[in-house]
Amino acid sequence: MTQRPATLGALREAGYRTRSVKQELRENLICRLQAGRTLFPGIVGYEDTVVPSIVNAVLSRQNFILLGLRGQAKSRILRQLVELLDEEIPVLAGSEVNDDPFAPISRYGKLQVLEHGDDAPVEWIGRDRRYVEKLATPDVTVADLIGDMDPIRAARGGHLLSDELTINFGLMPRANRGIFAINELPDLSGKVQVGLFNVLQEGDVQIKGYPVRLPLDVMMVFSANPEDYTARGKIITPLKDRIGAEIQTHYPRSTEEGMEITAQEAWVARDGVPVQVPPFIAELVERVAFLAREDKRIDRRSGVSQRMPISVMETAVSNAERRALAAGEGRIVPRVADVYAALPSITGKMELEYEGELQGAESIARDLIAAAARDLFDRVWDADLLDSVVEHFDTGGVLQISDGASAEACLAGLRAVPGLERALEDAGMFHADDMGLSVAAAELLLEGLAAHRKISRADTGTYSRAKPERPPKGKGKGGGFGFGSSDMF
Questions:
Q1: Is 213 buried (19+), middle (13-18) or exposed (0-12) by CB count in 10 A?
Q2: Is 297:353 a contact under the CB 8 Å cutoff?
Q3: CB-based contact 479:415 (threshold 8 Å)
Q4: How many Å apart are CA 211 and CA 99, to the nearest integer?
Q5: Distance between CA 463 and CA 455 in Å, rounded?
C-alpha cells in the first residue's frame, strides 16, 4: 500500500489537487454510472422515480430535500451518499473543521501553515468522518449548528474572547468538505432556519461575536414530511427557495416491491432452526399494509410506514417459532393465525381518523387481515364452488385452530371438513409430505370463506356457521344458531 503524504510539502510534491465536495460527488457519481454500478444498494422501487432525481441533483451540484411520509427510506438514502465521497482526503492534523491543507479556513489551520510551512502535519480522514447528521428538533439552536464563543477555551488558552481560537464550532463547520444532513427540517425554528441561508447560497457561515466568515465547502441535504412541508408551512419560504431540488419519495408501488423490501429487512432467520415462509403468507402480510394505506379510517396524511409489514413478518415468525418450540417441530412455518398474533405490530403503526377511533385500532387491524386474505383467496378459489366445505359449518360443524396447535393436530382436524383437502389439492396447495404448508394453505381457504361471510370466524380462531346479517325477528340472543358436531383442538 502506498504511504500517504504526511506533510503539506509532501502532499504538494505528490501533485494532490483539492476538489470541492460537490464536484467530488459529481465526478465519483459519473464513474459509477459509467461502470453500471448500483447507486443505492438495498433501496427497492425507486429505480425509475427517486434515484434519477437524486442523480440529476448531484450532477447539477445542488443541495436537495427528500419529501416523503414516514418509512420511505429517506434517511437511508442520505446516509448512502457517503459512498460517493473519496475513500480518504487530507486535512491539516488537529483541525476541527477538516481544513484543506492548501486553503485552510480556520484560525487554527492558518496558524499551522504559517508556523510550520511545508512541514505542517497532514492526516487522512475516511469518508465516514465526512458525514454529519442532525435530527431537527424545536430546541436546536443556531449555536448548535453554526457555533458560539467558548469562554472556558479562552480561559484555558489565555486568549482574548474575540480571538477566533475561542470559537466552539457547531455541527455545520465540522462537516466542512463533507455532507451535512438535517432530518425532519420543518421542526427547526424559523430563527434557526434563517441561519442556514448563507450556507446554502453563499457557502459561508457567520458566528456571532466574531468578525469572521468561514467559507464552508459542504453539501447540504434534508428530509421532511410533505404534510409538514406543505400544509403547516414550517419551512420558511426563503429557505425553500435556496434548496436546489425537491424530490418526492413514495411507498412501494406494487406488492412485489413491498415483499422484496420486507424480505430484505425483516429478521426471519432464527438460530439455525429452518424457517419457511409460504409465499401467500408473505403476500398476505404485505397486502395488509397496502390496504391500510387506502383505508378511510386511517389517516393517509400520516401514512402507513413500510416498517409495519417488516414488524408483522418478524412477529408472525416469532409466534410460529414459539409454537414450533412447544410442539417439538423442527421447522418454523408461519400461517394466518400467526399474522393475527402480530396485531400489536399493526395497531401501533396507524394514525386513525375519527371514524377509526370509534371502531378501535385492533378491530381495524383484524378487518385488514381478513380483507387481505380475501384478496388472496379470490385469486385461487371461488367461494361459491366450495359448498361441501360451507355445508359442514352450516350443519353445526365447528373448527378451532389455535395458533399454538401443532401442524399435525391442525391437519387432523382440517381433514374432518368434507371437501377441504380436495379444494387444496385442486389448487396445488396440499402437500402430503409437508403438514406445515398444508395447514397454512387450509387456514387461508377458511379465512377467505369467512371474509366472504360463507362461514364465521371468532377472534379466538374458531370457525363456525356464518352469522346472519341481522338477527331474525322474534329471536332472542343467539337465535338462529345451532351447534352440533365439533372438531376442536
A1: middle
A2: yes
A3: no
A4: 19
A5: 7
Residue 466 CB neighbours (<10 A): 17
Q: Which CATH architecture has domain 8-248?
A: 3-Layer(aba) Sandwich (3.40)
Task: Report CA 304 to chain centroid distance, whole Å.
Answer: 11
Among residues 33, 71, 380, 31, which one has the least CA distance to residue 225? 71
Beta strands per DSSP E along 366-431: 399-400
Q: What is the per-residue pLDDT across 78-133, written as a single tens digit (0 to 9) for each? A: 999 999 999 999 999 999 999 999 999 988 999 999 999 999 999 999 999 999 99
**Radius of gyration of the chain from its Cα atoms, rounded to whole angstroms:** 31
Query: Residue written as cell 382436524?
Result: 413
> Which position has the grid cell 362461514?
455
Q: What is the largest CA-CA distance in the chain?
A: 102
- Give the number of other CB atoms < 10 A from CB of residue 71: 19
- Cα angle vertex 312, ends 309, 318, to 5°? 145
At residue 282, what are phi and psi to the nearest 5 degrees?
-60, -40
Q: Give the whole-angstrom CA distance, residue 33 versus residue 19.
A: 20
- The predicted-structure confidence for 258-276, as pLDDT tens digits, reads as follows 999 999 999 999 887 899 9
CB 283 within 8 A of CB 341: no
SS3 content of the chain, % helix, strand, coil (to 5): 45, 15, 40
Q: Do 136 and 182 meet the contact criterion of CB atoms below 8 Å apart?
A: yes
Length of the chain measured in residues? 489
How is the chain split into domains, by residue range? 8-248, 255-488
Taking the C-alpha atoms of residue 57 and residue 220, their distance in angstroms, rounded to an integer, is 12
Name residues whose C-beta falls within 8 Å of residue 181's C-beta, 6 or more positions apart in sequence: 75, 78, 79, 131, 132, 133, 134, 221, 222, 223
121, 77 contact by CB (below 8 A): no
CA 301 – CA 486 distance, rounded (Å):
46
Distance CA 482, CA 85 (A): 72
Q: Is 125 helix (H, G, I), strand (E, B) or coil?
A: strand
Spatial separation of the C-alpha atoms in residues 62 and 158, rounded to whole Å: 42
Which position has the grid cell 427497492?
44
User: Which residues on adjacent β-strands are paired with residue 399?
Assistant: 463, 487
Question: What whole-number distance in Å separates Cα of residue 188 and Cα of residue 471?
Answer: 57
Tell me the pTM. Answer: 0.85
Report the alpha-carbon distance of residue 383 to residue 390 in Å, rounded: 9
* Residues 217/20, Cβ–Cβ less than 8 Å: yes
Mean pLDDT of the 384-405 span: 90
Q: Which amino acid is at 176?
A: N
Residue 229 gets which letter from DSSP? I
C-beta of residue 104 within 8 angstroms of C-beta of residue 113 = yes
